[in-house]
């Protein structure tokens, strides 16, 4: 993101050898269905100087099948930076990973299950903060249009970004678009918080992949919804100040290309050129 002034941030203040011991303040389900559970976990990690958009590492206790300590897993922070007055404490959005492997065995993700099972008062070992790039610009450069794209728990940093833009920054008037993809409506995360903003400059659109279909019968993903919103998005794509941020599943990158090219085609402009320009203003964290 050339020409964008990002804040100076601390990184790796806490490492595996000297982790921050953070107490659990809250662990509440955001989604709890037979096959899907997503938790909002709040930890007291005030000693760490982190900023929204950064991540923290979690060290699950115990050892792996080789007898070595478990690897650190990174989670995006879902709350405002720790130095922001009145901010909620460090929050994480964690999906419990349970699936059947090729042999039919049930596999439980080590870190996600550890986190989702935490009780109030438990202590978690954290590393970090991590990340210098997936950040909003400094306050003097923050007044820009934004397009945020999330799938599933990739919503975490955007919850924090929106809190900064709409609760902390004074008089933020630029357009902000949030595209959020989940399977079903009851899996939307922080939905009522986003709807509570009721700002004219906030445009919140969801793609419900198993509930909504494209005209050809395929699952509706956020890039399809973006292409449908060509009239609203086109001015932002053309505006060199607009910044794009994407967080979630790996496949999202090609979806971004699809959406930009689809919008360019509708508007009769060169798709490759528009895509190049938008990609130079895109920050992405996919996994
Ligand atoms: P689906 O699983 O119906 O194919 P998850 O909660 O598993 O992280 O998924 C979040 C949402 O992202 C789901 O609705 C999922 O759809 C959707 N999704 C899957 N692949 C892509 C992709 N390549 N681009 C955008 N969204 C995707």
Write a short abstract of this structure:
This protein has 287 residues and is of the alpha/beta class. The protein is built from 7 helices and 13 strands. Helix 4 (222-228) runs parallel beside helix 6 (252-267) and helix 6 (252-267) crosses helix 7 (271-279).
How would you describe the overall organization of this protein?
The protein is α/β, with parallel strands linked by helices and 287 residues long. It is built from 7 helices and 13 strands. It has helices spanning 110-116, 156-168, 191-196, 222-228, 230-238, 252-267, 271-279, and strands at residues 20-32, 37-44, 55-59, 73-76, 90-95, 98-100, 106-108, 123-130, 146-151, 176-182, 202-208, 243-248, 282-286. The strands form 3 sheets. A 6-stranded antiparallel β-sheet has the order 4-3-8-1-2-5, covered by helices on one side. A hairpin with a 5-residue loop joins β6 and β7 (106-108). α6 packs across α7 (271-279). It is globular and about 60 Å long. The two termini are 20 Å apart. 37% of the residues are buried. Bound molecules: adenosine-2'-5'-diphosphate (A2P). Adenosine-2'-5'-diphosphate is lined by residues 151-152, 181-183, 209-210, 219, 221-222, 249, 251-252, 255.
């Amino acid at each position: 993101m050339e020409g964008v002034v990002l804040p100076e941030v601390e990184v790796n203040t806490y490492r595996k050898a000297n982790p921050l011991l953070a107490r659990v303040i809250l662990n509440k389900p955001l989604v709890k269905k037979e096959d899907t559970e997503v938790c909002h976990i709040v930890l007291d990690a005030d000693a760490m100087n982190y900023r929204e958009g950064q991540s923290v590492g979690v060290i699950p206790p115990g050892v792996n099948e080789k007898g070595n300590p478990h690897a650190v897993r990174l989670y995006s922070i879902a709350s405002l930076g720790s130095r922001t007055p009145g901010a909620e404490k460090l929050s994480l959005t964690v999906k419990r990973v349970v699936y059947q492997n090729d042999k039919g065995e049930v596999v439980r993700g080590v870190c996600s299950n550890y986190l989702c099972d935490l009780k109030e008062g438990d202590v978690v070992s954290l590393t970090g903060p991590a990340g210098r790039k997936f950040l909003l610009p400094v306050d003097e450069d923050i007044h820009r249009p934004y397009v945020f794209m999330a799938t599933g728990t990739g919503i975490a940093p955007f919850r924090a970004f929106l809190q900064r833009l709409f609760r902390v920054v004074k008089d933020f008037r630029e357009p902000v678009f949030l595209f959020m993809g989940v399977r079903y409506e009851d899996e939307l995360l922080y939905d009522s918080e986003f709807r509570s903003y009721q700002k004219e400059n906030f445009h919140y659109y969801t793609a419900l992949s198993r509930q909504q279909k494209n005209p050809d019968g395929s699952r509706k993903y956020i890039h399809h919804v973006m292409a449908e919103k060509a009239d609203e998005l086109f001015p932002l794509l053309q505006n060199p100040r607009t910044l794009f941020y994407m967080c979630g599943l790996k496949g999202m990158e090609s979806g971004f290309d699809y959406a930009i090219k689809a919008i360019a085609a509708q508007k009769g402009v060169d798709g490759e050129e528009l895509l190049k320009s938008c990609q130079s203003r895109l920050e992405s964290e996919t996994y």
